[in-house]
UniProtKB/TrEMBL annotation:
This is Histidinol dehydrogenase/sulfopropanediol 3-dehydrogenase. It comes from Sinobaca qinghaiensis. It comes from the Bacteria. Keywords: Metal-binding, NAD, Oxidoreductase, Zinc. Binds 1 zinc ion per subunit.
Length: 418
């Protein structure tokens, strides 16, 4: 393995300052509700508007949206919804016998109230709202509370509002940052308390989700976008470069990594990246992301390359090697896999239907990211009768005696006697 370009060390640790800032925000929202939320909105977003986006405000805002933009958003909602429905079909209830008189199973129960955080960010991302809210609607959530920063003419961008409306949000609030997460987790006079909070955000949003976890569920804690392109001598350098920069432009701390079986190809990709960057606006985050977080390495074999990909456990894994289908199952750790040169990560970012809220910082070792399953509970049940009661009670009584748990023994023993 040889590094052609090495990324700078990027600390993934939450700073003490961020942790303490978020802790104070949550404490203030808990004690002062709407008053604290509005104080932080004014402090961080210079917003003094009402927290709730009314139906009238939403309709007026959406009315100014071009029809072609509405069509794009409707297509996003449709495709994300259909993929979530297909996933939901895989989640089946269970009810079967596990011995004479022992019947057990589980039910698929929707989470009742979902909190959807939709970042404002540098651009009004049309897909962000539907990616978080549409699967919640498919799962059967009764109420979907969405929060997004008021960073567009004193409100939420009309495209974001339309996406939320089409994908099932029942309540929309113009609140951003940690104060939005705190409001949804704790509840205020205006913002309902939720059961689960989902959606990406900046470091304050991520830290707020970490601190409220336990009181509410969360999907995952995701950071800036990541991509690893796996290539060989046949892979097109310009296509690889374009795919790397597509994710690098999300954030200055984005990670864009090339793992190649060919040094010549790797060097050609670097050259293409540098040329393409000259066409990007000077303010594009892609410049800093590539400079500090871009990484290029050459591996000696396909096996070493696959191991390298698994070690990175990257958010987006894009395989540009033509024979990708023959070794696809060897990839074990990724947020989402893109097989073949034509399978652009951008398609998933925008409209293919798979979710773009994915694990970063090697979180792909233990999760695949946001999906419809985040919005349901798999709750078990059991009915024990007759011979099943006798069998289990004998075991439980003996085990409780060994463990010294008198109450457990009495409960099991009563079943034996009766």
């Amino acid at each position: 393995m040889e590094y052609i370009k090495k990324a700078n060390d990027i600390s993934m640790e939450i700073t003490e300052e961020t942790e303490n800032t978020v802790k104070q925000i949550i404490k203030d929202v808990k004690s002062s509700g709407d008053e604290a939320v509005q104080m932080y909105e004014k402090k961080f977003s210079q917003s003094s508007r009402p927290l709730r986006v009314t139906e009238e405000e939403m309709e007026e805002s959406i009315a100014a949206l071009p029809e072609e933009t509405k069509v794009l958003i409707e297509r996003i909602v449709d495709r994300v919804t259909k993929f979530a429905e297909a996933q939901m079909e895989c989640l089946l209830p269970l009810d079967k016998d596990f011995g004479d008189g022992i019947r057990m199973g589980h039910r698929i129960i929707p989470v009742e109230k979902v909190g959807a955080y939709v970042p404002g960010g540098r651009f009004p991302l049309l897909s962000s709202g539907p990616m978080v809210t549409a699967p919640a609607k498919v799962a059967g959530a009764k109420r979907i509370i969405a929060c997004s920063p008021a960073n567009y003419n004193g409100s939420i961008h009309p495209a974001v509002l339309y996406g939320l409306k089409c994908s099932g949000a029942t309540d929309v609030f113009a609140i951003g940052g940690a104060q939005a997460v705190a409001a949804m987790a704790l509840g205020t006079e205006t913002v309902p308390e939720v059961d689960v909070i989902s959606g990406p955000g900046n470091r304050f949003v991520a830290e707020a989700k970490r601190q409220v976890f336990g009181r509410v569920g969360i999907d995952l804690i995701a950071g800036p976008s990541e991509i690893l392109v796996f290539a060989d001598e046949t892979s097109n350098p310009k296509a690889c470069a374009a795919d790397l920069l597509a994710q690098a432009e999300h954030d200055p701390n984005s990670r864009a990594i090339l793992v190649s079986l060919s040094k010549e190809q790797a060097e050609a990709v670097i050259e293409e990246v540098e040329q393409l960057l000259e066409t990007f606006a000077e303010t594009s985050p892609a410049h800093e992301a590539w400079s500090s977080g871009g990484e290029v390495l050459v591996v000696d074999s396909l096996e070493e390359g696959i191991k390298c990909c698994n070690d990175y456990a990257i958010e987006h894994l894009h395989v540009h090697i033509p024979q990708h289908e023959t070794f696809k199952d060897q990839f074990k750790h990724y947020g989402s896999l893109f097989s073949g040169e034509e399978s652009s990560v951008v398609f998933s970012d925008k409209v293919s239907g798979t979710n773009h809220t994915l694990p970063t910082h090697r979180g792909a070792r233990y999760t695949g990211g946001l999906w419809v399953g985040n919005y349901v509970k798999v709750a078990t049940h059991q009915t024990i009768t007759g011979n099943g009661t006798q069998y289990l009670a004998e075991h439980a009584t003996a085990q409780s005696e060994i463990e010294g748990l008198e109450g457990h023994r009495l409960s099991a023993e009563w079943r034996l006697k009766n």
